[in-house]
Design a protein that fits this description.
Distance between the termini: 39 Å
CATH class of the largest domain: Alpha Beta
Largest sheet: 8 strands, mixed
Number of helices: 15
Shape: elongated
Radius of gyration: 28 Å
Strand order of the largest sheet: 1-5-6-11-10-9-7-8
Number of domains: 2
Structural class: alpha+beta
Number of strands: 18
CATH architecture of the largest domain: 2-Layer Sandwich
């Protein structure tokens, strides 16, 4: 016997009934994106490595440590499994000249890949939903994206998620802040850990995002970027806050919120929770007005967010939120193979009418006894059993037996009028 092969560590199979939660969330996301007039984009999983080096930033953790990159054996190209979705979407927008006739509201979903130590809420293959608005510069679209995410939390009854905001200003403002930040950390060099020392002159803003408790005081006393913002940056931030206030959206201004990607400017935000330990960010994003030009397109403003599907579903499951479980409405009990043609014709008519029906099929031991088929019908989770016995077939009928309401009630239905009773078989089941 060959050795058993398992999935790569940190890349997980999603099996029933857990996959029902994914289908439930994906359906809600699709509906919500449609209501906000966002259109779906699907990009390749593999991109040129240069896209992420140029777009995300060469000195970010993602590019330095986490990307799955390799050389194409056929032509020597340097390729990477996408570690995030924004750069790929922007590349697609540029390549296909999507902004030639004005701004766009777009969304995507799919797997992303980062080489990390697998833990709760963090996997090597993980899945994101992203919403992006390109071609609009005002704070109203920043606010719209935050309202969109908030509407999603409401739609799935997600609680204990809070919004944190900051503004990173524009490059000249960040440059002035960066110089003061370096001076501050150089004056406290003895308190910096090795990672902070490595970043001091390459990306000092990322030091503010440290999780090292020994550096808490030096980070808290560091110059705050918001104090370096000019009138236009402050007006943008104030405009965003005014819209959120008018819509009753609570938030906290977090001056340490800098995000892990180099392409952000002005607005940055995160939806966070305390219920997932260290992996508390469930949705994050911000404005990236320079990214389109960095990747080779004509300069245009843009803003967006990405949500971690695994983290959101972990919260949903922890809350005990009931979601629809797509089990069969009915299970067909077919004691005699001779009844199969008529039974299958009836099942097809029921399916055409929207009823979910599971057919009992033969195994290496045959169809199995009437009793064993009923056991399988009960175990299937179906609300009803459809009995295609010899007596029923002789009369042109089927017996419908209730399996879930405790009554065990039976009714007889005519095979010549399937449509008249199909709707009575539909009975949604919830997964908690």
């Amino acid at each position: 016997m060959a050795d058993k092969l398992n999935a790569v560590k940190g890349m997980n199979d999603i099996l029933p009934p857990e996959s029902a939660r994914w289908e439930w969330l994906e359906a809600i996301v699709r509906d919500l994106m449609g209501r906000y007039a966002y259109r779906n984009v699907r990009t390749p999983i593999v991109e040129h490595t240069a896209l992420f080096v140029r777009g995300i930033g060469e000195v970010t953790d993602i590019v330095e440590k986490e990307m799955y990159s390799f050389e194409d054996k056929l032509n020597g190209e340097q390729l990477t499994l996408r570690p995030e979705g924004t750069a790929s979407l922007v590349r697609a927008v540029i390549e296909h000249s999507m902004l030639y006739d004005g701004g766009k509201r777009l969304w995507y979903t799919g797997p992303m890949f980062r080489h990390e130590r697998p833990q709760r809420g963090r996997y090597r293959q993980f899945h994101q939903v992203g919403a992006e608005v390109l071609g609009f510069a005002g704070p109203e679209v920043d606010a719209e994206l935050i309202l969109l995410a908030t509407a999603l939390w409401k739609a799935i009854d997600l609680v204990d998620v809070r919004l944190e905001l900051n503004s990173l200003g524009q490059p000249p403002e960040r440059a002035a802040h960066r110089a003061e930040l370096i001076k501050h950390f150089e004056a406290h060099a003895d308190t910096l850990d090795e990672e902070a020392k490595r970043r001091l002159h390459s990306n000092p803003l990322r030091i503010l995002d440290t999780k090292n408790p020994a550096m808490k005081d030096v980070v808290e006393s560091a110059p705050k970027l918001i104090d370096f913002l000019g009138a236009e940056s402050l007006a943008h931030f104030d405009g965003l806050r005014a819209i959120l206030d008018a819509n009753g959206i609570g938030y906290t201004i977090n001056p340490r919120l800098v995000r892990g990607l180099d392409y952000y400017n002005l607005t940055v935000f995160e939806f966070v929770t305390d219920r997932l330990g260290a992996q508390g960010t469930v949705c994050a994003g911000g404005r990236y007005d320079d990214l389109i030009a960095q990747i080779g397109g004509k300069p245009a403003p843009a803003v967006g967010w990405a949500m971690g599907i695994e983290r959101v579903l972990e919260l949903v499951k922890e809350q005990g939120t009931a979601v629809p479980l797509p089990v069969a409405d009915a299970y067909a009990v077919i004691p005699d193979a001779a009844a199969m043609p008529v039974a299958l014709r009836t099942l097809q008519q029921l399916r055409d009418a929207g009823v979910r029906v599971q057919m009992h099929a033969s195994t290496v031991d045959g169809l199995g006894s009437f009793k064993s088929q009923f056991k399988k019908a009960d175990a299937s989770g179906a609300a009803f059993a459809l009995v295609f016995g010899a007596d029923e077939m002789a009369r042109g009928e089927v017996t419908v037996k209730a399996l879930r309401d405790g009554s065990g009630a039976q009714t007889v239905r005519s095979l010549s009028d399937v449509g008249a009773w199909a709707a009575t078989l539909q009975s949604p089941t919830l997964l908690t």
